[in-house]
Amino acid sequence: MMRLFVSLLTVVFVSIFVINTASEFAWNKLQGDNDTLSVARQMVKVTKEKLSVGNHAEIDSYPIEHFAWLEDQRDRLIKGDIIELFSGEEVSFFFSNDGLRVYELGPYYVPAPDFQMKIVFNLVSYFALICFLLLWLKPLWKDLNQVKLISQKLSEGKLDIEYVPVHFSAIASHTHEIQKLTSKVAGLIENQRYLVNAVSHELRTPLARLKFALAMQNTTKDKHFSEVQNNILEIEALIDEMLKYARLEEVVLNEISTPVELKTLLSQTVSKVNQVDIKFTDNIEMEEVWIKGESTHLERLFSNLLSNAVKYGNGIVWLSLNQLPNGYEVIIEDNGDGIDEAQYDRAFEPFSRLANHSPDKKGFGLGLAIVKRIADWHGATCSIGRSHLGGAQFTLLFPKPLVI
């Protein structure tokens, strides 16, 4: 930041100095010998020099007390300086050789300056300053655009991050560090994707062999056989859940922009979760409620929340759709034990197992993480609370689309 600050100060200082020097030189050239004031000043100097060597011309002189001088003016006259007094478009010159008498030359007519020319000079000066600043800002602007594109690509899951060094940019070093950081993050994401897919794929082979070996054993009545078989099924379910979560990273956000009818989607999802009778309440008078999204992922979101409500509830699950001024609200609640308020933030973290869940109701801690990821993609907010039924309440707020 210090480099940026010093660079800006240097550019401003040099620009103002160059512009002022060039403007003054150009103005003096335009005025030339027709500058009456300059000619009069030169005449006063010549006259003062003649008087100092005893060549007294016919010049009016007055005692210094003849005029009501300001203290500063009197001191300057005594020192031998020339005093200029303007009156409208006229100027008179006063000077003294001995500090006792004052000589007066003038008044001389001084034509008013060309204000139009002055305005043109000022505008040209301001334009030149803007050009200097734009030249300084151009490489900075390119660097900032690169930072924006790098961040945008990373947020969209695109890992082909490129950086073109910009010469003379005041933040080139910072941009380069940001590029190195994003490249490292992109590499970590790529490695994580590869690791999850590779591990999941490699685990399936020994699991398949183990299942085949168990199937060949004639020990189905053995309790240990059932435990091993259940553990294998649990590992397979975990692998499937991990792959689902990993594949979410590869979703292109541009795909989440198609019209989705929310009422129909909720009804379809409820019909697929058939373990209990889910009460669906629609509090919107419109026949159709449209939002922008991707139906497959939205169905997974609602399915995960409804499955959790069925799993951790005690037989009662309510689903309601409400209209708010700023969007549509989907509420899923159950009559289970609920979630402690201190664990609301942790609930959406991957592989997070909540303390108040029963040991017999096993899960992998990825369901709510998937819910949060899909909700974020759709610009929706997901919050946890306490239901009036006694259990947990999940509230989703989808924004109203501007255009469908």
From TrEMBL:
Q: GO CC terms on record?
A: plasma membrane
How the protein sits in the membrane? Answer: Multi-pass membrane protein
The EC number(s) attached to this protein equal 2.7.13.3
Enumerate the CDD domains for this protein: HisKA (cd00082)
Which InterPro entries does the record cross-reference, listed alphabetically? 2C_sensor_his_kinase, HATPase_C_sf, HATPase_dom, His_kinase_dom, HisK_dim/P_dom, HisK_dim/P_sf, Sig_transdc_His_kin-like_C
| Keywords assigned by UniProt, alphabetized | ATP-binding, Cell membrane, Kinase, Membrane, Nucleotide-binding, Phosphoprotein, Transferase, Transmembrane, Transmembrane helix
Q: Which Pfam families match?
A: HATPase_c, HisKA
Which reaction equations make up its catalytic activity?
ATP + protein L-histidine = ADP + protein N-phospho-L-histidine
List, alphabetically, the PROSITE patterns matched: HIS_KIN
Instruction: Name all Histidine kinase domain ranges.
Output: 198-402
Q: Kindly report the protein's main subcellular placement as a broad class.
A: membrane
Q: Name one GO molecular function term.
A: ATP binding
Looking at the UniProt entry, the stretches that span the membrane are 119-137
Give the UniProt subcellular location, in the record's own words: Cell membrane
Its domain of life reads Bacteria
Q: Kinase among the record's keywords?
A: yes
Q: What is this protein called?
A: histidine kinase
Q: Which organism is it from?
A: Pseudoalteromonas xiamenensis
